[in-house]
């Protein structure tokens, strides 16, 4: 039997810590529900899920609640609970704020797992015997977070996390108190010749902490960065803020898994697991005492880190958590059949140069599958960036021995391992190409033809990667698809599954960066030609690139910067800081003290909201969002 897993699997932390470990252990069918909303209504998505259920032998339905609360209807949950055991895991669940967000949806589940002991205790009191609540602490993925041997400890104190600063200059959740603690530690380190490093979004907007900001770190680098550190600051406060409102974070287990000493605010749940081997503090004075002590006694810090690591690797990986989760569900669920173990893939992904002739393409495909033990193959261009290959959704079709299985592909735009909020792409299937709110001239058949292997059938482009082909039918299928424009002359067993097998990224990171560079050059050219260009937002990746370009070209009187949270500060450019430009506020724009022909929104995330916020300027200014290079306004930049 199988487990059906519903969640927002575009989020790396959910993918890395839940989806991938689950797939290693059990037969899991999974659906990334938010992606489907790009093209379908809620009713259509619920029917899609019902179809997946009908085609598979499902024992459990696991809904990961983060990002899923309002996606599916109460009627849907009521329907599936009549036939299946449904459970969830709440990733943020501390009373009061997080608990109150989750509590209205608790009635949807037979079993609720929560990482918060206080959230669990609240439910136990409320539920009585109506349903089940289980306290299940965080774990970590030991494949991503692990000790790095023989690394040089060139960072004395490290913090990784986001600056919770809004565009209005205010902080959300516990952001202000956390920022002040980090500033306190940074000043101490600077005064005492300790090296303090800071990674994460928006710290370049902090007038003090931008001095120690080192940019961003991804999953491939994070163990190396943590491993270079002697001490990691790992604050865990709930969104109410303050030392007393502790919240256990997944990062506390991840740092433990890297075998590095960490300091965090007092947390009875963590102390119960790790004892005194984490540096706990209750106020700013205790924080500084714990920090100073362990900087001055590095051997003690190393011994404590080793004890935390030993405990983590023994009992707190995500595989430990998932096995316990399934064991508890097994004891409660009326169905006593066991979940099947993880199946082996039966599809060979073939990478082909899209510019090959038909004969060469077929020859190259055959050479790659001749020694494969898999029964099916899928052909993709060698440069296609596959983010997700969800064979689980068509496993039942594979078992039915079809010769050709048509599937859907979800195409995304990505930048720097983050999906831009104004994400744009399209969902081609075997019959047509569905645009998703995209300017027609930007994502058209011509662009797709230039990017992916495919063919034209009656004026409609069909991507070859949408066809899963039986290995023994490969030659005849390819010949018919390409030479006969998708018409199968030979009798073949063909079905359109309507399942989303692939999620791919349309543009490489390098291509996106190049596009950004071209837009910046166009804007600076416009300023040189007399246009008044205002960059709206000081901070983040685009701001850094803009500053570099201005410093290279030289100061222009036609360029201005606006950021309400940084008014009164200066943009300092050049190797010696010889170029200085004041940061103004939006009021200066409203009152006409700043002239603007073009307003360029520098934010890569949330640019749609800022476009609406600046809608009053559209009649007299060209407003351009860097967060969506396909916005129709960019076409007017050269006018």
Helix percentage range: 25-40%
Mean pLDDT: 86
Q: Provide the number of structural domains.
A: 4
* Sheet with the most strands: spatial strand order: 2-1-3-4-5-6
Task: Tell the overall outline.
Answer: globular
**What separation lies between the terminal Cα atoms?**
61 Å
Strand content: 15-25%
What would your notes on this structure say?
The chain is an alpha/beta fold. It folds into 4 domains: 2-139 and 318-332, Rossmann fold; 155-314, 3-Layer(aba) Sandwich (Rossmann fold), CATH 3.40.50; 347-507, no CATH class; 510-636, 3-Layer(aba) Sandwich (Rossmann fold), CATH 3.40.50. Helices cover 34% and strands 22% of the residues. The strands form 6 sheets. Strands 2-1-3-4-5-6 form a 6-stranded parallel β-sheet, sandwiched between helices. It has a 6-stranded mixed β-sheet with strand order 12-13-20-15-21-14, covered by helices on one side. Strands 24-25-23-22-26-27 form a 6-stranded mixed β-sheet, sandwiched between helices. Strand 1 (2-7), helix 1 (12-25) and strand 2 form a beta-alpha-beta unit. The radius of gyration is 27 Å and the shape is globular. The N and C termini lie far apart (61 Å). The model is unreliable at 414-444 (pLDDT under 50).
